Amino acid sequence: MSRANHGSGLGTGTGTGSSGKGPGQGRGAMRPAGGDGRKPAKPTGTSSSQGMGRGLIAPSARSVALQVLTAVEQEGAYSNLLLNGALQKSGLTGPDAGLATELVYGTIQRLNTIDYFLEPFVTKGLAKLAPWVRNLLRLSFYQLHYLDRIPPHAAVNEAVNLAKKKGHQGISGMVNGVLRSVLRRKEELRFPEGMDPVQRIALEHSHPEWMVKLWIRQYGEEAAEAICRANNEPPSVSVRVNRARISRNEMIRLMEEQGLQAAASKISPDGIVVHSGGNMALTSWYREGLISVQDESSMLVAEALDPRPGMTVLDCCAAPGGKTCHIAEIMEGRGRVLANDIHPHKAKLIEDQAKRLDLENIDTLSSDAMQLAERLDASSFDRILLDAPCSGLGVIRRKPDLKWAKTPGDVAEIAGVQRALLDSASGLLKPGGLLVYSTCTIEPRENAEMVASFLNRHPEFELAVDEPAGWSGRQPLEAAAGRVEAGLQILPQDAHSDGFYIARLRKKSEGNG
């Protein structure tokens, strides 16, 4: 699968591929630059504004990729947002836009492996290079080492030309020398024998060692390596049909008539996996409200909530509205879905999605989810969805920056927020009602352990013993169903979808507590 589809949802405003509720990347997303590729070194050298502004350069796939990678490192911004803006500004389309996307995501995904191999070739060390030079070497090495379809001489020549335009003769000579040395010794670029599992997996699949160590402890070595391997694969492009407007079979037929390769999702009855077709949010089907862009794992959440026509449903942290709208679609436009988000501009995104999909049973509210219990009546909702802010470790395939930006402390920090949100939201549920807690992470402290702790504090709740119709018959979910005691823990390798957690909690009926 081409990684050109990796950014297929960029800039659409839908954001429904994952929860998008993780904490911001305030520390910068690209870290490894030390001699061993595993211990980050603080970058030094000139800023991106020095050297980057030497004359106007006609945009090319490599110059756009270089611009994005340098900004990601220095500003700590999200690569998908930067790339989308850079592509629009540059005017690159088709294969050129695809190559720029490949270079950005591929370089970030393989960052510490690239740095590990590059380091011996740079006399003064990667960390001492100007950021734009360091990233020029990185994206060039990615082409030489990982992309078979690009002739090596083309990758080297383009890098040298960029270095000449952005820097000076000394820099272009150094870039030329490093890359030609890499080519001469390409067959020697191997990992040493006898590495311990953590080091080996971290380098072979380019993940931070702390993350690999964590996953080995939680899931075992084999599963941890499978997680890392899956995180480096291009994500699927999947859409959700608006069941209120069209059936899945009819939508697939329309796609095939237009020459697209599309197949029914093996996870969600409302999902379609599109194997070719580019940005589905730019299609007339999207504009007309027949489909929404959403990851397959994410589609399970509304189904788990079991919303029914006429019910009153609360979505506590709803933006940008993908799950909210799915809930409303299942309810056939009857009843009420109250979608809350702390940011007014994000609540507006939900309204825009509802309007696009012609859903009139959605109301929006802009409030801190922690304070909903103060604004809404206790025991007033039949269903509550808490798609909680999380570390986002299940969506690294879509957001490779995350694995370099996160620290072990992030998990502990966000877990406290999740705990408070669960405690607050639970009081708004009617007896006999259902609360679904979901995250786009694979971290047990945020998931199964969080739910177990909640049940200990709230004896009026219990795990819902029933499961949505059809879950037991879906092969990709079988491994996930038995992975943890409480809830469904999907890992990225289970079905080539996002890592996701879903737990269904029922409030005991009065007299059963």
Automatic annotation (TrEMBL):
Q: Where does S-adenosyl-L-methionine bind?
A: 317-323, 341, 368, 387
* Comp. bias regions, Gly residues: 8-27
Q: Name one GO molecular function term.
A: methyltransferase activity
Which UniProt keywords are present, listed alphabetically?
Answer: Cytoplasm, Methyltransferase, RNA-binding, rRNA processing, S-adenosyl-L-methionine, Transferase
Q: What is its EC number?
A: 2.1.1.176
Task: Please write the reaction equations for the catalytic activity of this protein.
Answer: cytidine(967) in 16S rRNA + S-adenosyl-L-methionine = 5-methylcytidine(967) in 16S rRNA + S-adenosyl-L-homocysteine + H(+)
Q: Where is the SAM-dependent MTase RsmB/NOP-type domain?
A: 227-508
Task: Give the positions the UniProt entry annotates as the active site.
Answer: 440 (nucleophile)
| GO annotation, biological process | methylation
* Compartments where located: Cytoplasm
Q: Where is this region: Disordered?
A: 1-54
The top EC class is transferase
Q: Which InterPro entries match?
A: MeTrfase_RsmB-F_NOP2_cat, MeTrfase_RsmB-F_NOP2_dom, NusB-like_sf, NusB_RsmB_TIM44, RCMT, rRNA_ssu_MeTfrase_B, RsmB-like_ferredoxin, RsmB-like_N
NCBIfam families, A to Z: PRK14902.1, rsmB
Q: What does this protein do?
A: Specifically methylates the cytosine at position 967 (m5C967) of 16S rRNA.
The family classification in the record reads: Belongs to the class I-like SAM-binding methyltransferase superfamily. RsmB/NOP family.
PANTHER family cross-referenced by the UniProt entry: NOP2 YEAST -RELATED NOL1/NOP2/FMU SUN DOMAIN-CONTAINING (PTHR22807), RIBOSOMAL RNA SMALL SUBUNIT METHYLTRANSFERASE B-RELATED (PTHR22807:SF53)
Protein name, entry field: 16S rRNA (cytosine(967)-C(5))-methyltransferase
Naturally occurring in which organism (per UniProt): Paenibacillus rhizolycopersici
- Protein encoded by which gene: rsmB
